[in-house]
Amino acid sequence: MSNIPQELIFDILSRLESKDLIRYTCVSKAWYALIHNQDFIKAHLQLSIKTNSTRNILFHNRRTNYTLDFLSLPFDNDEMLGTATKLGSPMPSKYSWDIVGYANGLVCLRNYMEGGIALWNPSIQKLKKIPEPYAQLPPPELDYGFGYDSTNDDYKLVQIVELANEEDIVVSHQVRVYSLKANSWKRIQDIPSSGYYVFSVGFCDIVFLNGALGWLMCGELLDPQCKIVTLDLASEKYRVFPIPVDNIEDRYMPDLKILGDYLCICLNFRSRRDVWIMKEFGETESWSLLYSIDRQPNVCVKPLAFSKNGEMVLLEMLGNEYSRLSWYDLEKKSVKQVEISGLLPLRYYLTTVCWGSLCLLDGDPVIAKSSNKRKTSSSKKRKTSSSKMRKISSIVKPFKLW
């Protein structure tokens, strides 16, 4: 094996799945050093993203046993996506760990009831706990986002603290940033958004794309228009973009997503659901309507990913009694349900698309079980408090999800 050029070994190993590479660290000291090398880890990730060879769906069950199921999604066969593998919870808890963000194979989790934040690599089952910043009492509205700063080669977690006055009017948004490289939090400039509030109604409300975090902000009664705010993780500068539709009289809840390499916004109307993509990030003139589908009663439809040839979109369909995946053909404008092997009926699942990677390779192993009970934190996330729901109802017409 010593006669094989190192460049060839590098190229071959970089094409393998993460779980296989973990086993191959035992082959020799040279292979161990190579697989742990940061240049190799980056090359492996870039190749995985380029070829979609390790694209996966992470199923997050928030209703039963708080488990996380991992489904391989090779896209070689658009009708059969692969075989699901049950992972269980990355850390023991009587409460659910919610996904607050994803970047480069790392999933950021937060336990809103007991407190605690962690980075988790599900493909290699490694974990790193993150200290939460000091939270004032009573606990304010908190939102979190997670992403990668390629300029400084650093993973960052952003906390947004929404503060309101006695009349329940939002007066400021304090922002703190955690650096994985420095292992510390710092305060940065507040969001320039007086009178607006972060539109947070559920799961993974803050998205990551092109080195920036993005989220929706909506105004009070006098200015009900929604806007998109982004934070560049390297420069720590904010930008504001309008959504692609001005008339909000007939719109239900907007939903900001990432679809492939595009920023994506889903707009719900009485009879249809429009999905727009921003073809050039940051260029408002590049908004383009990707598709429009009829609205189904009590069903929430969200785009997850493009097919390998880009001709179809994988949809997550959440209903009263089920969750399912379906392909939407962009040309034929038809929907076809996806067959999944090795997974129980999809009831009450939420999904995240991610890639297998070696990031966090030197992290701690996932905790299998623990006899210690953590104390309940006083800093609970009020996902949709009564005050926030009153604001939402003033600008959108809610629909029944469950």
From TrEMBL:
SMART domains: FBOX (SM00256)
Gene3D superfamilies named in the record: 1.20.1280.50
Segments forming domain F-box: 1-44
Record region (Disordered): 370-391
Biased composition (Basic residues): 371-391
Top-rank lineage group of the source organism: Eukaryota
Name of the molecule in the record: F-box protein CPR30-like
Organism: Prunus avium
Protein encoded by which gene: LOC110760977
